[in-house]
Amino acid sequence: MYEIAQKSSRKVIGLMSGTSLDGLDIALCEITGAGVQTKVDLLNFTTVSYDADIKEKILSLFSKQTISLEQLCLLNPWIALQNAEMINKTLASWKISNQQIDLIASHGQTIYHAPKSLHPLDEYGPATLQIGDGDHIAVATGIITISDFRQKHIAAGGEGAPLAVYGDYLLCVDPKENRLLLNIGGIANYTFLPASCSLDQVFSSDTGPGNTLMDAYVRKYFNVEYDKDAAIAKQGNVNIELLNILKADSFFEVALPKTIGPELFNLAFLAKAQQVTNTENISQYDVMATLNRFTAETIAAAINEYIPSDINYTIYTSGGGMHNPLLIEHLRQLLTNVKKESNVKIESSMSIGIQPDAKEAILFAVLANEAVAGTPLFAGGNATKIPITMGKFSFPE
User: Fold this and answer.
1) What integer is the mean pLDDT of 78-93?
2) Which residues fall within 8 angstroms of residue 143, CB to CB, at 6 or more apart?
3) Could you report how far apart the first and last alpha carbons of the chain are, in Å?
4) Element (DSSP H or E) covering residue 371
5) Are residues 337 and 283 in the same domain?
6) N or C: which end of the chain has fewer CB within 10 A?
7) Total Cβ atoms within 10 A of residue 286
8) Is 53 in the same domain as 173?
């Protein structure tokens, strides 16, 4: 580890599996320097799709208050070993030996996220749980693995998310341009980077649902993994009554910054809203149109709540939702209408050299690099109270 820390550059594999459960993102990064001197070259990237068996096993635990403790115990190492096999096969396909890799940065598979706003238990603070044990990955790959990043963030006063703020700051601050990094995954979040800002001026927050409700709905009613090109939502009409009751949830009254997960925004949440509004018999296409608009309006509301209306900035998108043309069209309309005085542009993060589908995996590789370099960071927007490094180290021997 000492030798790795002394290197001028390190080869780090970043792993990310999000709430969409579509697969494991594997990003091989060459990282030079640390802190504000960090430079990242993405050498290779792939997403290894999860088969039906892996998805079924994760879903047996995912975002549920009541689960089998035995299943949780068994899946923690099992998921790690599946990930390790994917890494080994991917490196072989790239003709890269495991010995050439300095570090693996594993986010793990989130199975439950419980910010303080989600539970009424005063004696407990926020909590989160990711499975996919780092020791098993390290032993099975022969590569030092850094994992379980979110616990330190909570211990230091945050909510364990969003962690993108660190990598966004280190890689994306511009001396002249105000930038907003918008990631639309299962949950949507953004990081605002004023031009030439310091880390304590950065602001980051979840906004609410990204793709999670839409994905869950089409899986159940259309037997597809996601609404490709918004083909389903485009066939429907927004139901205003349903939209308004979805937006009336108390989460949207919680002050920014905040975090949330599918523990709130799930099909039970939708079913309750439809029951209240007597919209249980509207077409499934109308439901999808409404969910699409719901994501867009809550993202736009959270952006407009924090960023003054007279500021010009560019939004750089990443995550699966950036490929949803109807969602992006809604965002353009909502942000343009509200901010008539300003110039808001929406572009892919590729415009600033960040492969959008690889972005989260890259950011965890950066966090691992910071942990090895010993660079303590703290998030803006009062997300943590003290400078921290994140991640637990697992050695292969």
Assistant:
1) 98
2) 13, 87, 98, 101, 102, 103, 104, 137, 396
3) 12
4) helix 359-373
5) yes
6) C
7) 17
8) no
- We report the CATH number of the domain holding residue 251 as 3.30.420.40
Claim to verify: residue 180 and residue 269 sit in the same structural domain = yes
Domain that includes residue 340, residue range:
164-352
Q: Do both 96 and 113 map to the same domain?
A: yes
pLDDT-derived band at 97, boundaries 50, 70, 90 = very high
Domain check: are 159 and 182 in the same one? no
- Separation CA 327–CA 231 (nearest Å): 11
Q: List CB contacts of 135: < 8 A, sequence separation 6 or more.
A: 80, 145, 394
Say if residues 371 and 145 touch (Cβ distance below 8 Å). Answer: no
Give long-range contacts, CB 8 A cutoff, 24+ apart: 32-40: 32/8, 33/8, 33/9, 34/369, 34/370, 34/373, 34/375, 35/170, 35/370, 35/373, 35/375, 36/170, 38/170, 38/171, 38/366, 38/369, 38/370, 40/171, 40/362, 40/365, 40/366
pLDDT tens for each residue of 278-327: 999 999 999 999 999 999 999 999 999 998 878 889 999 999 999 999 99
User: Is 177's pLDDT higher than 80?
Assistant: yes
Q: 178, 184 in Cβ contact below 8 A? A: no
Q: Are residues 58 and 125 in the same domain?
A: yes
* Residue matched to tokens 């031009």: 195
Q: How far is CA 381 from the centre of its chain?
A: 18
Residue with tokens 């579509």: 22
Contact partners, residue 275, CB within 8 Å, separation at least 6: none
What lies within 8 Å, CB to CB, of 140 at 6+ separation is: 80, 81, 84, 85, 88
Number of domains the chain contains: 2
Mark residue 315 as left, alpha or beta (left: phi above 0; alpha: psi -120 to 50; beta: remaining). Answer: beta
Regarding whether 238 and 192 lie in a shared domain, the answer is yes
Claim to verify: residue 346 and residue 371 sit in the same structural domain: no
